[in-house]
Design goal:
mainly alpha, globular, 2 strands
């Protein structure tokens, strides 16, 4: 997510669908490296409570 500087409801819907598909097959879905201007979008939509969000890929891999 480090290169994503903007996300709208369509983008959020794609991430939610991807997470559901991954978890359906027993996988773990995480987001890493959200830019500071994108974080509030997840917080406002309360998706920060739905997604596993990590500061960077290494953090995500070490905790998953």
């Amino acid at each position: 997510m480090g290169n994503v500087s903007y996300i709208d409801s369509s983008g959020l819907a794609v991430l939610i669908e991807a997470m559901q598909k991954v978890e359906k097959y027993g996988g773990k879905f995480a987001l890493a490296g959200l830019q500071e201007n994108v974080k509030p979008i997840f917080e406002i939509a309360r998706l920060d409570q739905v997604f596993r969000i990590y500061p960077d890929v290494d953090s995500a891999l070490s905790r998953e």
